[in-house]
Amino acid sequence: VIAFFQRKVLAGRRVVVTAGPTFEALDPIRGITNHSSGKMGFAIARAAREAGAQVTLVAGPVSLATPRGVARVNVKSAREMLAATQAAVPDADVFVATAAVADWRPVAEADQKIKKDGSGAAPTVAFAENPDILATVAQGERARNGALFCVGFAAESHDLVAHAKAKRERKGIPLLVGNIGPLTFGQDDNQLLLVDAQGVRELPRASKLVLARQLVAEIAARMAASH
Ligand code: CTP
Ligand code: CA
Description:
12 strands; 30% helix
């Protein structure tokens, strides 16, 4: 009912959202992941759909229902997430990266379960850096000439404002959203900081869906202003 009365600020637009953690396999049984629930990204996908957009949600392993009317692509690893995202962004107008992408993956995935050898020695795992999906997309031509509006998220444990400002510039994106601590994995509410070229603005604590709707409105306003 509420959605019905919302203004369709993204009508005719295509939006791609990454959400959830990634899972980086060590062997067929085990892997490295993190506590991301995917709730913020799923809420943004839902809000963008409510606002009239055609939405593709690239989701890592999470146990959440797909928002109504949203096209979902399930992935596990960061490299799969990058491939699915690159397949979706060429005709998109907005890219919102909420995924908690694993920064590193085990260099090798064992074909078989790694077994204890009885000596008490623990295996050593070598890691390789994963691709930065947001930075890769933001460096593309359509993002650089303003045809694809890129939004990043950052969860920091300390010095949020300074880190968020630096991260926005490093990634080359117009808008970075900071999760204001304490870290809210799996919670239904959140508190956000919007960091753009003009400065910093707070979205006070609210449910992730309410914040997602506010963020969608902010994105639409910035797109209108830049055209
Ligand atoms: N991101 C991404 N691909 C990665 C790492 C991050 O797309 N390999 C995106 C996240 O989805 C988020 C933004 O980049 O929108 C910031 O992620 P974050 O982990 O805070 O930044 P990093 O650049 O990885 O730096 P660090 O973890 O060292 O703070
Ligand atoms: Ca990271």
